[in-house]
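Extended Data, panel c. Modelled sequence:
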Amino acid sequence: MNIPSLPRQFALDISHTPKASLENYLPGKDLALVSTLKTLSQAWLNPAPVFANNPLNHRWIYWWGPEGSGRSHLLEAIRNAAENAGLECFALGPNEPISWVRLEEKMAALAQGTSASVITVDDVDRLDERLVGALFRILNGISASKNMYIFMAGNAAPANLKLREDLRTRLGWGLIFQTQLLDDDEKIQALEQAAKARGLVLSPEVLPWLLNRFYRDMPNLMALIDALDAYSLETKRAVTLPLVRDLLQPK
């Protein structure tokens, strides 16, 4: 199948695109993970959390799954929930080494403090040797604390990651979940939910047509929803199949 690419560039209104949240994530087969994250985020709203009985597996979660299964969305969602609760947050990934340095400089103070803090680590499978060492040290610091939370995501279960053995072992110290790809009906439900959040009304035939003719992974489909939103506003036309074909038509 010849998959079209978006031929137009839009200056999207970023403020109009809803932030990633646990509420706008369709759990599908990931209900246990999403329920766990919701329970944790609700606890953060308690103005006087008690950390004395805060076991490690309530603060240390790793999930894995194929690309497009929602791994990064959930990391961003839990980080947004933490920020909304007033917690200090740190977002780490393979392409931002300075963020790791800044966090390591603060680890001792964070571990000894009385306020909760949240760390997210995306694409654990892509960390280089230096960042693997940094994550190992960070995990050691978190295991000795009572108020630090870490949420990590990768493309494989800990035992199958191509990382050094001691880090693979530590990744398994907390809770582990697998994120699943949505089936077609679930994709349509998620896209309808995303369109509704943007105030975008889609003709009934649009989403089934897109699943047959366009990318089938959720990140690209969500990007297309944003593009359709912008193009609909630009042209002052309803989102029907003719508008979709016009958007995707090579120019």
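Residues 31-178 form a domain with the Rossmann fold fold (CATH 3.40.50.300). This feature is highlighted in the accompanying rendering.
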